[in-house]
């Protein structure tokens, strides 16, 4: 089960964070800082996994963004990579060839998509179609209530 | 209340939304902290307001700031407020903020219990969903205890969307409030068999996690999981199950099998993929793969079989087949045995028996296979027997001997013939014995065997072959008997035929009946002649003389096409050309002969397709964001056949169904080995000799190394009939010569796409406009970053009703980068406003509804509302967009101005001279005049210019004097009297709105000062 998922840029700017274990803000900040440094220091040819404290870190770079997941010792790295990839695919489908700025400006949408895909760290829906359908319908609902509100 | 809402939306106008905040932060890189602290102050103000929309916006911004590392815990209560909104839009934001900002020590969580409970039971599934998602992040022991029951109810919700979320969140609840596990577990277990795969996988996930913590309690679920593992096609689920078994195996060693199996299966599957490209590397694992044949799992055995097919060589064929034969014996009565049988034949016969070195061995294998009871593949064995016997001449004698024994022991095969497909073999046996009867040792005995009454119980088509071949045998027997002095033997043979054949004449099968009665009459005639002591054998044999030769599969192609036969000509009228061709302009095809159009058209298509494909690939390669599909990883499990979990019991058959007198194929294996050993020994001898002669060490290589394929000399050769037909004269190919003509014809190139609107925007858009509309044009060219992104704006304002102006903007991407997320925004003035969709704020930009790949242009229209039209207007605007490059994307903006001139509000309206006169007489119009100096153009040009640029129409023209008229969109009349003398033009004008008139005259003046 993933402990948390972080998205950060090549410059080390955090773009998205999702914690599946409750931690205090101070701890979160510390972990984030350390981890971003560690991952950014790695060369492109190096493998996508590293052991960090008592966790395993699985990360992958897509264009200018690093997607990074922390998992437990017994968890499988490959399925975590697959989860990351699936999330990227979902973002890509939703935003239409996604890029970093999409995530910056629509960060709440990025969270909504992640929340439809993973719940409490577990993959809740493996079908891309279903995830996007849920998001679209919720978006629609949001627009309807928005319009109502403005009237 | 209404006032409040209005007040709220007025307040909102001045709020920053999230986008503004993000943009602001990006623009204040140097003093970020300061900027953010002012933002936080603003947010605090916003949070104090009553309007929930304002609050939600503030909370959304806080969520972003929280990610940047700012402390937002002070706003926890406001977050709860937004969570409690009845509007989904705000609720969603509230829960998101909560899930990001709350943790166990956040004290306001206590306040949320009732709200969450309310949301969980909301009739809207997305309300429930959002609440569950949020809860998963900040659930505390208290919340878990209070809400466990509600969530448990949701596990049986009608919507799978809710069920799966509820199931997953149960895990979190269990962790926080372990007492809930016991009552919830039965329901959780039920969910393992939920009809929805999503819910099922959620349940698997949760139980796997639970089992990892305490495996022993979940052992009882193992059979259920086993069933899931064998039936599920979702590899996410499979991975979880394997992991679960991993956790359970220390307690239940039997489970190791199932885990190992899946892995084994995958390994074999992977190997078969590798085999296609690197056969050598897989061949070295032959023993391992052979071991897999002993596996209890049928799927694995079948995979292994597939692999073996690809790995055989001359060297190991016998060994592999021997092993397979052992399995055949073991696999009594299963479909797997049939599979084995076909595999053995496939393996042996692949690529024209390439790997068979000894056909005697192969025949014996086939004969051994006939002992299989209940197989469906009798005909397969039969066709192999026929094929080999016909094509391998050297093997015939042996084959015939074997077949004779088979026929003799036919009763063994046909014992329970009804359900036995193996009797098909007798078809082959009978035919081979008949056709090659000269090789028979005891033809009389075989003839006897073929005419037994029991034969009549065989299927019709086999009986027919029996009868026909009995006749062939009869001929052979006669031939051998006539040499003898005693003619009674021959007569007895005829008598045997006459005695036995009537049985077949009575057959219900037409074929059998026909052949039998024909042959019966023939034999009767022969008998008559025999009684007259006529030598008849010669003539009878002539009936079946001549050898049957196999025909190559490609033989038909080599038959020359007869003269005058055009295989390419249409027999009927060809079907009408496809629609797309109909649409093509006729001129293109007019000069050419229509009959060539079809092939050429496809050629164009192919080229075009290839070109597009190439272009697409290029684009994908250049696009770092393109995510390549990885189907292989997902499909691995899809063709998994059901795992046979019934263990295969090894039955020790003490009395195998052996046909007496038949050789065992094993002996050939031994023979082969002996032969090889001998050869090796001989070779060594030779080598030694050579070495002695040459006294050089070069021969060493051959000595110790393993035998190469070439060393194995086949015992028999197959006639591989492929090129036996005489080569066709090359002249025959001339039939196809007319086709060559079309090759010479020029290939039509792809039609040019119409020029982009930006290049000749004027004409393109003029055509699109409705006659009523007037337009103002502005052309702007902006260069940014030197030559990277260049865009041309061609802005046209079109007027419609009293207060609306439509502006069409053409965007053209002249750079090499991909432009997306374009937002068009204009700073509204009091007078002119950009029309925005309902619900968006007064400063929100409008999304341009397309993306622009490099070199592409597209047009978007924007509507403006204008209150007063008497003054010209300039509106400032910005276009923001994202520029995507190979590996980066930047956010850029482009400033522009929209110029609304007064003439752009005028509409060309025709007016008759009497109406015009009345207008002037009415006296409502105010006058004004202007003089233009140095205008050097003919008078009619001048008029045309005013008409074109300023939307006037000529009412009357007398010599160098003309009256003109136009009307504004708001109904103002504008009248002009234009006079010219020399280079001076004087315009007297009247209008009911002097300001408008003044501005129009200024604009006219400007037009002429420019020329």
Automatic annotation (TrEMBL), chain A:
GO CC entries: AP-1 adaptor complex; clathrin-coated pit
GO MF: clathrin adaptor activity
Keywords: Coated pit, Cytoplasmic vesicle, Golgi apparatus, Membrane, Protein transport, Transport
Membrane topology listed for this record: Peripheral membrane protein
Principal subcellular localisation of the protein: membrane
Subcellular compartments: Cytoplasmic vesicle membrane; Golgi apparatus; Membrane, Clathrin-coated pit
Domain of life: Eukaryota
InterPro entries per the UniProt record, alphabetical: AP1_sigma (IPR044733), AP_complex_ssu (IPR016635), AP_mu_sigma_su (IPR022775), Clathrin_sm-chain_CS (IPR000804), Longin-like_dom_sf (IPR011012)
Domain AP complex mu/sigma subunit as annotated: residue spans: 4-141
Pfam families reported in the protein's UniProt record: Clat_adaptor_s
One BP term from GO: intracellular protein transport
Role description: Subunit of clathrin-associated adaptor protein complex 1 that plays a role in protein sorting in the late-Golgi/trans-Golgi network (TGN) and/or endosomes. The AP complexes mediate both the recruitment of clathrin to membranes and the recognition of sorting signals within the cytosolic tails of transmembrane cargo molecules.
Binding partners and assembly: Adaptor protein complex 1 (AP-1) is a heterotetramer composed of two large adaptins (gamma-type subunit AP1G1 and beta-type subunit AP1B1), a medium adaptin (mu-type subunit AP1M1 or AP1M2) and a small adaptin (sigma-type subunit AP1S1 or AP1S2 or AP1S3). Binds to MUC1.
Family: Belongs to the adaptor complexes small subunit family.
Protein name as annotated: AP complex subunit sigma
Source organism per UniProt: Sphaeramia orbicularis
Automatic annotation (TrEMBL), chain B:
One Pfam family here: Mu_AP3
UniProt key word Transport: yes
Localization, UniProt: Cytoplasm; Golgi apparatus membrane
Disordered: region residues: 567-638, 670-715, 746-795
Ranges of compositional bias, category Basic residues: 685-701, 774-783
Top-level taxon of origin: Eukaryota
SMART domains, sorted: BLVR
Domain spans labelled AP-3 complex subunit delta: 604-732
Biased composition (Basic and acidic residues): 583-619, 670-684, 746-758, 784-793
PANTHER family hit by this protein: AP-3 COMPLEX SUBUNIT DELTA-1, DELTA ADAPTIN-RELATED
Similarity-based family: Belongs to the adaptor complexes large subunit family.
Protein name: AP-3 complex subunit delta-1
